[in-house]
Amino acid sequence: MQPLVELLVSFLKPRSIRTIRYSNEDSLRTTLETLWFEPGKPGCIAELCLLADPKACYGAGRYKFADLFIPRSGVDAIASPCIELKNASLPALFQGMGNNSNGTPEQLEELRREISMLNEEDLLSLKVNYDQKYGDGMTINEMKNLGFQQVKHYVDLIRQGKSNGLQQGVYDYRVRCKRGQSTLIGYVVICVGATKVLAWKVVDKECGHFFMPTVPTKV
């Protein structure tokens, strides 16, 4: 995971405030897809669809979506990483400090400079206006804990193999599932102010299936 972190940091470091101030998890996901994988190759599955509750209606917890899933891509590849992404934008961090605005470019540039000098412990204590449903916001550490819970759940769902819509499992046409031994590894990656990137290996579980990307149909 360290090479991915270094790659992402090196990409973000020279970006101007204008280009990164409103970065979100979608843009972070797209950036990682573009940097980490060769375009056109089915090596990375974004927003992997998982059937979590077959009895629920859509929108009521029926589906979960794993940010990035890397299925087995070769004969010798036995590990399939599942990555949960979190993003704390500069304006959200600025508001988390008690400010009532998104910050001027100058203020966000100063905040970015301060973030660049913080260690992991200090970064985890930062507060971010993450989502309205979390009221006054949450700390990066709370965001991390939320990500841990999510990726553990995703790994447990993936372990159950392919779903036909009647039981939990992988419900995504982009992935083929076969009987065989593999390892599912769950990671959480948090981008802090488009400046620092934190990553943790959360879970490592043996699986009775292995997963292959579906080869795209040529037009």
Main attributes?
two-stranded antiparallel ribbon; alpha+beta; 219 residues
Question: What's a quick, concise take on this entry?
Answer:
The protein is α+β, with helices and mostly antiparallel strands and 219 residues long. It has one domain (2-212).
How would you characterize this protein structure?
The chain has 219 residues and is of the alpha+beta class. Helices cover 32% and strands 30% of the residues. It has one domain (2-212). Strand 7 (175-192) and strand 8 form a beta hairpin. It is elongated and about 55 Å long. The model has no long low-confidence stretch (mean pLDDT 88).
What is the total domain count?
Answer: 1
> The biggest beta sheet, please?
6 strands, mixed
Number of DSSP E strands: 8
Average pLDDT reading: 88
User: What structural class is derived from the secondary structure elements?
Assistant: alpha+beta
Provide the succession of SSEs.
HHHEEEHHHEEHEEE
> Helix amount, in percent?
25-40%
Number of helices: 7
Write the topology of this structure.
Layout: H1 2-12, H2 17-20, H3 25-36, E1 45-51, E2 63-69, E3 79-88, H4 90-96, H5 105-116, H6 120-125, E4 127-128, E5 138-139, H7 140-158, E6 169-170, E7 175-192, E8 196-213
Parallel strand pairs: 3-7
Antiparallel strand pairs: 1-2, 1-6, 2-3, 4-5, 7-8
